[in-house]
Design brief:
The chain is mainly α. It has 9 helices and no strands.
Amino acid sequence: MVLADIYGNRTKCELESALKELLRHKPLDQIRVRELTELCGIRRQSFYYHFTDIYELFSWSIQQERTALCRRQEGCLTWQQALLDLLEHAERNRAYYQAVLKNRGRPGLRELFQAAVSQLLGKTLTYYQRRCGTPPDEAAEQAQLACWETILLALLEGWLCGDLEQAPEEVIALMEKVVQQSTVGAAWQNLPQWRD
């Protein structure tokens, strides 16, 4: 990697950090380039070298965040750990995610979380299929994943907006109860002697 690339990426990351800090105190449409560059200790020309405006920086930031969320999920061993990590990260960056929701709407928030949530749900489904002895059924799996993805994304949206007041640990406990009940149902379906 060329030195200019390293410096450019560092500058972009510094601007992204400054943007996230400012979003804690004011909405995106009230943030000015001058504020960002002052926080970073760089000249305005440096900002315009990388981005045309605040909204382009915000778009770049969303792409970076999407990638970072997926990387965070890779390090989690269980779905509970993955969901807890996702909720705790969202809690620490609530103002940022609320800005995504306000400026990009539900589709933007869904796009941001979708890859990480799909990864989390895919691992979870595979784990419980093995545990219950459920044979693979790609069409049914896709329908289940789409349903659970919608539920989980709605839960994340509601939680970010303050509709759900539970702490991340409480949300995990509620989800775990639902998953356990589903597991019992799946196990029951796969015991032929009990179905007769």
